[in-house]
Amino acid sequence: MQEELYKVQIDNIFEGPMDLLVHLIKKHEMDIYDIPIALITEQYLEYLQWMKAINIDVAGDFILMASTLTKIKSRLLLPLHEDETDDEDPRLEIVKPLEEYLQMKSAANDLIARNLLGEDTFVRNPNQENHSMDQDGEIIKVGLFELIDAFQKILEKIPGDQRIEFTADKISVKERITQITDILEATGSTTFEALFSESPDKSEVIVTFLAILEMVKLALIRIVQHAQTGVMRLFYQ
Question: Which of 4, 30, 122, 131 is 20 to 30 A from 175 via CA?
Fold first, then answer.
């Protein structure tokens, strides 16, 4: 009998709908005051469809944001009546919350960047020294949507039918977590690409993706990315 499909909950652990919007805006180098709503809506819905396809439980606020984007897109497509003006851009419904969110994120990042009380007083955890890939390169924290981008690139290289159908007929997510844990316990860290065989199939890619998400939730690993080369590395915590 086939195992029950593995479902990953992302609530309160990974990024929310605003983070996905920010990710898309940065990815396509958009101006938040001139967002191409048709494109951003299409891309947003593709991410939601991808997450649902591999059994990631999408929270209700993601669906609400999708509805908001679709509504704005529809309003932009509708012709104005004679008694209406175009003074109010429908996109402001999303631009204003985006502005506030980016301001809060910036303030939060400033707080994180400050030296913690006592940080230079106590002995530093040796694992902290391992969270860098080289002394000269800048590293950035990897989130859910950067991971999705990385996995999509791997899936695009797999020939044949590109439909994503997750089945547990080869290896379970729990077994994959054990495998990755063994690798990291032996090496301390590994590159993202090194987790896959030379010719991975869809099942291997998707199970690995779900295993990594679960390990991040359990605070077993940390993932960083080299800002210049784009190389992702997993560290055992």
Answer: 131
